[in-house]
Amino acid sequence: MEDQTQRKPRILCLHGFRTSGEILKQLVLRWPEPVIQNLDLVFLDGQFPSQGRSDVEGIFDPPYYEWFQANEDFSEYRNFEECLAYIEDFMLKNGPFDGVLGFSQGAILAAALPGMQSQGVALGKVEKIKFLIVISGAKFGGNKFGMPKLASNAFSKPIDCLSLHFIGEKDFMKEESVALLEAFQNPVVIHHPKGHTVPKLDDKSLEIMVNFTDRIQRMI
Q1: DSSP 46
Q2: Cα 127 → chain centroid
Q3: Which residues contact 26 (CB under 8 A, 6 or more apart)?
Q4: 3-class DSSP state for residue 183?
Q5: Contact at 8 Å (CB) between 189 and 167?
Q6: Nearest one of 174, 181, 182, 188 to 136, comparing CA atoms
Q7: What is the pLDDT of residues 74-91, one digit of tens each?
Q8: What's the CA gap between 69 and 115, in Å, rounded?
Q9: pTM of the complete model
Q10: DSSP string, 63-132
């Protein structure tokens, strides 16, 4: 019989706006081997093909995808319910998943999932999300982003879900990423000097990351 204690944490990875699972995979796999080898990372493409120009054109190859759409000031959203149903369906067929990693649009989405799941409005058919890794994240209902209807109570009480947050010193989302921390109980934080990206890990970041992966390994 397989030794269950050695199972790696299975993590669903959600990419940024108008990028792809493959692009996020290339960025995340730059992390050091001690981190990567202990995680079972699954990269999903958004359901919707990019509906406009991607900021990564000329840097990363297409195709590009998005998880949902919003109007210009992010006060109204389209296809948010469809996005959640799509993610749940993938998790059912390819799970069970222990946690979710997200970058940018994927991180905004990931941050809201545990609250929506505990409220019973999303991911009701899959196991409880045990942890999050949020890179350049933000909060629905914060200064910059309005609230999709289904997420309206996602942050009504502190999120009791182990979380690791990457915050970039030069990231245009820095303020939003910092504000998101208040929504979580005991968030773990990695500060990095870069902008809106998945950063490489320096020695200090690596230490925090390895401690975090040790914690999630013990949880599952």
Answers
A1: -
A2: 17
A3: 60
A4: coil
A5: yes
A6: 174
A7: 888 999 999 999 999 999
A8: 21
A9: 0.95
A10: --EES-EE-TTSSSEESHHHHHHHHHHHHHHH----EEEEETHHHHHHHHHHHHHHHTSS-TTSPPP-EE
